[in-house]
Amino acid sequence: MKFFIVLAANFLLVSLSTFATEVNFSRAKLTAVDVSYSLEDINGVKAIKVVKNPKVTKFDEPTFVRIQGTDFKDGTIEVKVLSRLLADAPDFARGFIGIAFRINNENSAFESIYVRPTNGRSDDIKRRNHATQYFSYPDFKFDRLRSEFPGRYESPADIGLNEWIQLKIVATGQRASLFINNADTPALIVDELKRGADTTGAIGLWVDVGTDGYFSDLRVYR
């Protein structure tokens, strides 16, 4: 139990107004949804390791660690992520890692923004332009969005595997912006969150196929 309390101070801070309040962190506050997770120490950084259930073969699915008590609608989510490829990762794996938010009670609908670290510095310009991604489950996964709205819900970003990447998602109503590594300007702007402006729900630590994903220093500001 002592390890979890220490991790709480380093990993999860929730601000209910203009100040940050520490939240006790324990397994009771985490729910694995088609993923496995463990607590790790990466070069002195406390983190949660998350790996997708290999039996889930579809993309952009509810594959996350749900954080109980994070009822989120509008505000800011900040987290540091580090992505590696699993030894058995398929060729199309990109180190998919990010945040699910406004997750409903049944885990059957949510918004998500994630990154593809292998694409960030690719020599293939098309892949480089696909370094970030928004999707909305269940109706608007990446393939539908890419087909119907090419280039609108993904963008380039200077990121790579096996490095800590700071993600900041600012959501207000039907709009969300993604900022990377303390940048002043967003890497991705979503003007129309597909589930609408009034949805609310939990936050999740999301990964997809082939990803050995790590999350640290999660903060939520409302």
TL;DR of this structure?
It contains three helices and 16 strands. With 222 residues, the protein is mainly beta.
What does this molecule look like?
By secondary structure, the chain is mainly beta. The protein contains three helices and 16 strands. The protein has helices spanning 2-11, 125-128, 142-148, and strands at 12-15, 20-22, 30-33, 35-42, 45-52, 64-72, 75-85, 97-103, 110-115, 132-137, 154-155, 165-172, 175-180, 188-190, 201-207, 211-221. The longest helix has 10 residues, at 2-11. The protein is globular. Mean pLDDT is 89; it is low at 1-28.
**Which runs of at least 5 residues are low in confidence (pLDDT < 50)?**
1-28
Q: Number of helical segments? A: 3
Helix and strand element order: HEEEEEEEEEHEHEEEEEE
Mean pLDDT across residues: 89
Q: What overall geometry do the principal axes of the alpha carbons give?
A: globular
Distance between the termini: 28 Å
Number of strands: 16
Largest sheet: 9 strands, mixed
Helical residue percent band: under 10%
| Cα-based radius of gyration, to the nearest Å | 16 Å
Strand content: over 45%
Main structural class: mainly beta
